[in-house]
Design brief:
The protein has about 140 residues and is mainly alpha-helical. Helices cover about 80% and strands about 0% of the residues. It contains 5 helices and no strands. The longest helix is centred in the middle third of the chain and has 31 residues, at about 60-90.
């Protein structure tokens, strides 16, 4: 359900990130900002949920096999949530980004933890780290 919220509200971040977007009126801009905040909130919730449950594998082989099959889906969920956090850095005010780095680190930590059993998690980490470093470099130039 959280990933559906991420996907549902993510276009608001895309709109806010456009240089030519000013909103047709105050209500339009206000609604778009609210949707962007909902998107960031659900991304944080997704990351927290997956990070906090990642280490709960048991000794039962059937459960571990289920977790390996569902791992690929979790990688996509956390990857989507991490890209939302990157988008938020571009669109939202600095005061709204106080804990973004914390959740970013949790997402990367989760993907690194599961990368030993998932090639896609390893690839996600690499792509996210490249995007993060490019965003950090571009924001240095903008300031």
């Amino acid at each position: 359900m959280l990933n559906v919220r991420n996907l549902l509200y993510r276009p608001s971040l895309i709109l806010l990130g456009r240089v030519d977007y000013a909103g047709e009126n105050g209500l339009d801009l206000s609604t778009t900002l609210t949707c962007a905040r909902f998107c960031v909130s659900s991304a944080k919730d997704t990351i927290h949920l997956l990070h906090s449950t990642a280490s709960r594998l048991t000794g039962a082989f059937w459960y571990n096999v289920f977790c390996i099959f569902s791992l690929e889906s979790s990688n996509i969920d956390i990857y989507t949530a991490a890209t939302v956090l990157l988008g938020a850095r571009l669109c939202l005010e600095k005061g709204e980004l106080d804990d973004i780095e914390h959740y970013w680190n949790l997402a990367i930590e989760y993907l690194q933890r599961v990368s030993s059993s998932s090639v896609s998690a390893e690839r996600c980490v690499k792509v996210l780290e490249v995007m993060h470093s490019q965003l950090s470099m571009s924001s240095l130039y903008l300031n």
